[in-house]
Amino acid sequence: MTKAVILSPHFDDAIISCWHTIAYQNTLILTVFGGIPKKGTHGLWDMLCGERKSDLMVKKRIKENNEVLSNYKTSIKNLDYLDNQYRKTEIKIDKLVNDILNNTPNQSVYYAPLSNGKFWRHPDHSLVKQAALKLLILGKKVYFYPDIPYARLPDRNKLNVPRIEKYNSKKLSINFKTKIIPLTTEDIYRKVKDVKSYKSQYTMTNLVSLNNLARSLSLDYELIFKAKF
User: Predicted confidence band at 116 (pLDDT cuts at 50, 70, 90)?
Assistant: First the structure.
């Protein structure tokens, strides 16, 4: 049986960018950088978010994630890779791909971050994108999602699909077919509530993104790109 697997770099990425998939499909969310750092770790981002002890912050984020996703037909798995702010060693893409395959059903459709932001690309998101491209080479079915807030999407009446496809195809050297997923007023209300339930992250993420996170939550659509060579 085919399973929708969202490769979420961090705990809140899936709900921010793939809310509709979570709400309306039987989904497995695989949080890649879900490892708990050792006691005594003090990540800069965690401190900006108001928690000096990073092990406590990650435990808090896991609790938030579990609570939000308990409202949906969603399975949760967290890999033990450490967030970029904690780790000092390089991550091998082949090992990451193997870990993804070993923790997901054989018949999976993968959803991965595009990591094509024009101004900044989170290194963790870029690693997951690289792993997804390897999965595509292996013959797996892969979709990509614009990873908000690093991606800035326009209002739907200003959405230029050919332009977006051309930009992304040039960046990744693969072809894309775009699916526009409309959101109802009720969907938007539920999505806003869910995203804001990640209280440890929302305020600072929105501030650093110059309000792009909050603005994106008012959009009446989400985008998914089917990828093929």
Answer: confident
Domain ranges of the chain: 3-228
Whole-model pTM over 0.85: yes
Residues in CB range of 162: below 8 A, 6 or more apart: none
The pair phi, psi for residue 158, each rounded to 5°, is -115, 10
As a whole number of angstroms, the distance between CA 228 and CA 141 comes to: 8
Q: Which residue is listed with tokens 């040039």?
A: 170
Taking phi over 0 as left and psi of -120 to 50 as alpha, with beta for the rest, 173 belongs to left
Q: What Rg value do the Cα atoms of the chain yield, rounded?
A: 17
Predicted local confidence at residue 8, as pLDDT: 98
- Tell me if residue 226 falls in helix, strand or coil: strand
CATH architecture group of domain 3-228: 3-Layer(aba) Sandwich (3.40)
Q: Is the peptide bond before 149 cis (omega within 30 degrees of 0)?
A: yes
Instruction: Report the alpha-carbon distance of residue 174 to residue 133 in Å, rounded.
Output: 9
- The string of pLDDT tens digits covering residues 166-187 is 988 888 889 999 999 999 999 9
Q: Kindly state the tokens that stand for 187.
A: 């969907």
Phi and psi at residue 113, in whole multiples of 5°? -70, 140
Residues 57 and 82: beta-carbon distance below 8 Å = no
